[in-house]
Design brief:
4 strands; elongated; mainly alpha; single chain
């Protein structure tokens, strides 16, 4: 019997890496993850070295954060990186994004059945999740480097895209296949979810200023947690709850650090450990832990 179709009880006795479908990863997956991140880092270094003391954003419309800063880090108005650590720290999103793209290609080549989990069965959603991570890293980096209104739009657009991708994965785990109304025809849900994800990400990125981010993010978060919970209790399916708990703990810790930073109670303005930069790291851990939560899925045939 193929390993993927073995009873779920036997499959759950496998090691953690194999349960997460991360065992024996080929080197090219790490090449995409680390190589892509390294190229972006090299670009950041070159741009920073060339324009460190050049007021390239002087003619751009400033964001409120530039006029009335919320975060404690010192602002350098006449530099391409107006805030330093809050810009560099966005590389963690980019690294996660490139690794997700590498894993999506790896899963696509293996063609694992639904019994091994929805994420490996529908690697297109992993690919979109990776793209949204890179978009978030570049958009947030652009915002913290420029502190411009357009940069803020790209930053929030990346957050929308990442959250919409997470919701799509949660819904797909709960409803991996769909039935055509008034017929017996069944088809996978991932193409529909992928189209909704792309459209929603583009829409909210473009119309960012028409909506309250806090309100929309509350709706998305509620939907995510609802379907993540419902997916957990579905019969004949197993998910490792530890990753979901780790994600909740990460975002709780990150929110506390962000609040301390806004209150100027975390570190000084020139410290290498900036509260919002730590927030970037911890929120990226949220995405990673939720990704592992859904990747741990196993089903009975």
């Amino acid at each position: 019997m193929p390993k993927a179709l073995e009873p779920i009880e036997k499959r759950l006795q496998l090691g953690m890496a194999e349960r997460l479908k991360l065992d024996k990863l080929p080197r090219w997956v790490h090449g995409i993850g680390l190589g892509g991140t390294g190229l972006v880092l090299l670009l950041f270094i070159i741009v920073f070295a060339a324009f460190k003391d050049v007021p390239v954003w002087a003619d751009w419309v400033p964001a409120d954060e530039f006029i009335n800063p919320d975060y404690a880090e010192q602002i350098y108005p006449d530099s391409i990186f107006r805030t330093r650590m809050n810009t560099w720290s966005n590389l963690v999103y980019i690294c996660f994004g490139f690794y997700a793209i590498g894993l999506a290609i790896y899963d696509w080549n293996r063609r694992l059945p639904l019994e091994r989990g929805y994420l490996t069965f529908a690697p297109v959603l992993t690919f979109l999740f990776g793209l949204s991570g890179i978009y978030l890293g570049l958009g947030s980096g652009f915002f913290h480097a420029s502190l411009t209104r357009y940069g803020q739009q790209c930053d929030v657009g990346g957050m929308y895209a990442t959250m919409i991708c997470m919701v799509a994965i949660a819904v797909g785990s709960w409803l991996p296949k769909m039935r055509v109304p008034r017929t017996c025809r069944i088809f996978p849900s991932w193409p529909v979810l992928a189209i909704i994800t792309i459209f929603g990400s583009v829409y909210f990125s473009y119309y960012k200023w028409e909506y309250s981010f806090s309100q929309i993010s509350t709706y998305l978060s509620g939907t995510l947690f609802l379907f993540a919970g419902v997916s957990l209790i579905q019969p004949r399916k197993y998910l490792q709850l530890r990753w979901f708990v780790a994600g909740v703990l990460a975002i709780t810790l990150g929110s506390k650090i962000r609040d301390l930073d806004i209150a100027d109670q975390f570190t000084g303005p020139d410290s290498i450990f900036q509260g919002h930069a730590v927030w970037h790291l911890v929120s990226c851990l949220l995405y990673m832990f939720l990704f592992l939560y859904f990747r741990s899925e196993e089903r009975d045939s």
